[in-house]
TrEMBL record, chain A:
An individual GO BP term: phosphate ion transmembrane transport
InterPro entries the record matches: MetI-like, MetI-like_sf, Phosphate_PstA
Ranges where the ABC transmembrane type-1 domain occurs: 292-521
Pfam families named among the record's database cross-references: BPD_transp_1
Keywords, sorted A to Z: Cell membrane, Membrane, Transmembrane, Transmembrane helix, Transport
Subcellular location: Cell membrane
UniProt protein name: Phosphate transport system permease protein PstA
Gene3D superfamilies named among the record's database cross-references: MetI-like (1.10.3720.10)
Molecular-function annotations in GO: phosphate transmembrane transporter activity
Organism: Halobacterium bonnevillei
One Gene Ontology cellular component annotation held by this UniProt entry: plasma membrane
CDD domains, sorted: TM_PBP2 (cd06261)
Membrane topology classification: Multi-pass membrane protein
From TrEMBL, chain B:
Gene: pstB
Name this protein carries in UniProt: Phosphate ABC transporter ATP-binding protein
Domain spans labelled ABC transporter: 39-293
Molecular function per GO: ATP binding; ATP hydrolysis activity; phosphate transmembrane transporter activity
Keywords, ordered alphabetically: ATP-binding, Cell membrane, Membrane, Nucleotide-binding, Transport
Gene source species: Halobacterium bonnevillei
Length: 535, 298
């Protein structure tokens, strides 16, 4: 086979290329992080390092990356550096680089010739095609470095030496928006460094299959870490903003606990924000206890309503109903229900359930509406989990003369339990933070002076309906509902906190409640998994 | 499994190598043994949709012995086996004509209780299929579900539970399946932690725990290594002292080693020859069977 290329089996002797690639890669990662810090305003764009402004430093880093890439690419092509490149960088790379060059050409033409479409479009097209051909036609080591390196070096130089600084603005005539350099440059640097890291990683392993693998690894890795970073930032933001509110007035020994039976008061931890009522005359530090209790009752009721129905329906659809048109329709319908906007569920509850059940907003209707929302997800995940139980278990059970229902109860459902619980966890996470339907069917005063006393309100009678529960049929407050009220129109009744402070505190508690519910779910899933497998 | 096997197109090559003209003769499948038949099958036809998987199979299976069913893939031997305890009822497309009689009762007759039938005719599958439960729960699963063992919370609270009886039953079944010594100390561990051979013996023990009269085995050793296979074979021979064991296998040496009588199915779902194992392997009457057992095809 004459067209098979053979490269040396051992790695390169010379380490120059590897060293330069390493520098490119390292600079890219550092500049990537720095650009994010600037974007998120953790570092001000007026900051300087050794007298050089931050943006100019970033520009210099990008120049270094571009120059390094070009050096490795050209060095490899001329045979000074050991590498095992393929014959071309590939069409996808060509498209990306072509696009970059088209953008460069377009901007340059707008600046020099003016921004009429007929002027910049031809230039951008020519640049784009040039970038594409320049990437695709040469060997991989040149194609995937030189077009990129050049453009990075040009961009970096214009930032570092060309006067694009924090006060520079770009105000295109087709838009009323004004883009300041303090925002544009970090955004551009984020993308530039992603590409730089990709190129550097590729060059480090000498291009070819190994190089592509390394490039993809760094590209995917940095994107994933950036996303995780944003998520961590979100949580950190809520914690830092809410923590002070949540901890107001806490002390380990300031409270009192009255011992049962003895009547003795002993010092006890005090946690006013979590354990106090919100309104009321004698509450010094308002707390979120009524809303926490309200949220827990909502979730409890919804789960109690949705899980038996969902699991039952899943069992019927998988084990009893014949696979066919009917099950397909149900499948599509449940998937559709799961993506139905929650406000629609709320509207249904308001128009249909409220007049028939409580005549006004109530916990019970809130539980039902959230239960309706949870139902499709429980059904979908439980159905998938049951379908994943291997048929050999059903055969084994049938061969022992065990009936279908007993088999479902003792073999199929236990095996499907971990999957079903995963679905319930996901659903509970969604409904615990649901606000829209609660506005319509559930919420009363957002700052109640007492928690709903559901357990103590059951009354039994000898006439229908035999059981009544005043608390279940009354409105209450829940964490997301209270948060919404506080940050929109709320006039907070106490002077201890401002609206914003109280809102952040509520948000943090809501986050903790949802995480707590998750923890319960994950724990029970692990328990059932361990029972099913020998771990 | 048997579904795909049965709907498999008959191998055309087999029917063209010079044994096509041979018709099955009744005396070839006439096998006389002392004592009454445990199971007797009369004119059994099985269809999967339009495809006929078994054609007029008739044979009598004696008690307390091993009956081997051999034949090439797709010849209907697994289908035949699954007819005996009506496991084919679970396949919607399958239709069965003819009769299967267990000690005088037609299992396809009206009002047959499937629970009782499958308690009396147990089955072991090709792939070991213990439940993802503890070894103890695997064994006591059948009796518990049939209400023969009550170890529920209520019974325990009332002091009427059968925990002692369960322990005895689990030990007896595991000993009978030659597994007790290996798992004695880990009866509460998950059965999926056992090796393949141990799992298969556990499945046999699970089957024995409901006290069957007939044990059907569908290639019970084909997924196992040689040592585990040898243990299963020894076990089958032992079980034949008390039970009627029917084993499907496509390993002819295995059939020769363990069985007392052998039924040979050939492509098309026909029973071609049935008789004493020694006679089938040393002096078959049918030319096709001779070709098959001497390895000329199949």
């Amino acid at each position: 086979m004459s067209n098979v290329t053979r490269n040396r089996l051992t790695g390169a002797d010379s380490t120059t290329g590897e060293l330069v690639s390493q520098v490119v890669l390292g600079t890219s990662v550092l500049a990537f992080v720095a650009a994010w810090l600037l974007l998120l305003q953790w570092v001000d764009e007026t900051a300087t390092l050794a007298g050089v402004p931050a943006l100019q430093l970033l520009g210099g880093a990008v120049v270094l990356i571009g120059a390094g890439l070009t050096f490795v690419g050209v060095g490899s092509r001329l045979g000074y550096l050991d590498a095992t490149p393929s014959s071309t960088a590939g069409v996808p790379v060509g498209f990306v680089f072509g696009l970059l060059w088209a953008i460069l050409g377009g901007i340059a033409a707008t600046l020099v010739l003016g921004d009429a479409l007929s002027l910049w479009l031809p230039v951008a097209t020519v640049f784009g095609v040039g970038g594409f051909l320049g990437s695709v036609l040469p060997r991989e080591d040149v194609g995937s470095t030189v077009p990129l390196g050049t453009i990075l070096a040009l961009f970096g130089a214009s930032v570092a030496f060309g006067g694009i600084d924090a006060n520079w603005t770009w105000s295109p005539s087709w838009s009323a928006a004004v883009f300041p350099g303090s925002e544009l440059v970090p955004v551009a640097v984020v993308f530039a460094t992603l590409l730089g890291a990709w190129g550097g990683a590729k060059a480090k392993l000498g291009f070819g299959a190994e190089g592509r693998q390394a490039g993809a690894y760094y590209l995917v890795g940095s994107v994933v870490f950036a996303m995780l970073g944003v998520l961590a930032l979100l949580v950190a933001f809520i914690v830092t903003n809410g923590l002070e509110t949540v901890l107001t007035g806490t002390s380990l020994t300031g409270g009192h606990l009255t011992l049962p039976f003895v009547g003795l008061q002993v010092p006890w931890a005090e946690f006013p924000f979590l354990l106090n009522q919100t309104g009321g005359l004698f509450v010094e530090i308002p707390g979120v206890l009524p809303a926490v209790i309200g949220t827990l009752w909502l979730v409890f009721g919804a789960v109690l309503f949705a899980v038996p129905l969902g699991v039952g329906a899943a069992v019927f659809l998988t084990e009893y109903a014949e696979r066919g048109r009917f099950t397909q329709v149900v499948e599509v319908a449940t998937n559709g229900l799961w993506s139905t906007p929650s406000i629609v569920f709320g509207l249904f509850g308001l128009a249909f359930l409220v007049p028939r059940i409580s005549g006004g907003n109530s916990i019970f209707v809130g539980q039902l509406v959230l239960g309706f929302m949870l139902l499709p997800l429980v059904l979908i995940t439980c159905r998938e989990a049951i379908l994943a139980v291997p048929d050999k278990h059903r055969d084994a059970s049938a061969a022992l003369g065990v009936t279908k229902w007993q088999t479902i109860r003792s073999v199929v459902l236990p095996a499907a339990m971990p999957g079903t619980i995963t679905g319930i966890i996901l659903g509970v996470g969604r409904i615990a933070g649901e606000t829209a339907p609660l506005l319509l069917v559930f919420g009363g005063s957002p700052y109640p002076s007492s928690s709903p006393n559901v357990i103590g309100s059951f009354e039994f009678g000898i006439e229908p309906p035999f059981v009544t529960n005043e608390a279940l049929l009354s409105p209450a407050s829940a964490l997301p509902y209270q948060l919404y009220s506080t940050i929109t129109a709320g006039v907070f009744p106490k002077e201890v906190f401002t609206n914003t402070e109280f809102g952040w505190g509520t948000a943090l508690v809501l986050l903790l409640v949802v995480v707590g519910l998750y923890a319960i779910g994950v724990g029970s899933r692990l328990y059932f998994r361990r029972k099913l497998h020998h771990e | 499994m048997s579904e795909t096997e049965a709907t498999h197109e008959p191998d055309q090559r087999v029917t063209t190598i010079g044994e096509t003209s041979e018709r099955v003769r009744e005396e070839w499948t006439d096998y006389h043994f002392s004592g009454d038949a445990k199971l007797s099958i009369e004119d059994l036809d099985v269809y999967y949709g339009d495809e006929q998987a078994l054609q007029g199979v008739s044979l009598d299976i004696p008690d307390e012995s091993v009956t081997a069913l051999i034949g090439p893939s797709g010849c209907g031997k697994s289908t035949f086996l699954r007819c005996l305890n009506r496991m084919n009822d679970r396949i919607k497309a399958a239709r069965v004509d003819g009769s299967v009689t267990l000690e005088g009762t037609d299992v396809y007759g009206d009002g047959v209780n499937l629970v009782e039938l499958r308690k009396r005719i147990g089955m072991v599958f090709q792939e070991p299929n213990p439940f993802p439960k503890s070894i103890r729960d695997n064994i006591s699963y059948g009796p518990r579900k049939h209400g023969d063992l009550d170890t529920g919370l209520l019974a325990r609270l009332l002091g009427r539970d059968d925990t002692g009886a369960e322990r005895e039953l689990v030990e007896r079944a595991l000993r009978r399946a030659a597994l007790y010594d290996e798992v004695e100390n880990r009866l509460d561990d998950n059965a999926l932690g056992l090796s393949g051979g141990q799992q298969q013996r556990l499945c046999i023990a699970r089957c024995l725990a409901v006290d069957p009269e007939v044990i059907l085995m569908d290639e019970p050793a084909s997924a196992l290594d040689p040592i585990a296979t040898a243990k299963i074979e020894d076990l089958i021979e032992e079980l034949a002292e008390d039970y009627a064991v029917v084993v499907v296998t496509h390993n002819m040496q295995q059939a020769a080693r363990i069985s007392d009588q052998t039924a040979v199915f050939l492509t098309g779902g026909e029973l071609v020859e049935y008789g004493d194992t020694d006679q089938i392997f040393e002096n078959p009457q049918s030319q096709r069977v001779e070709d098959y057992v001497t390895g000329k095809f199949g």
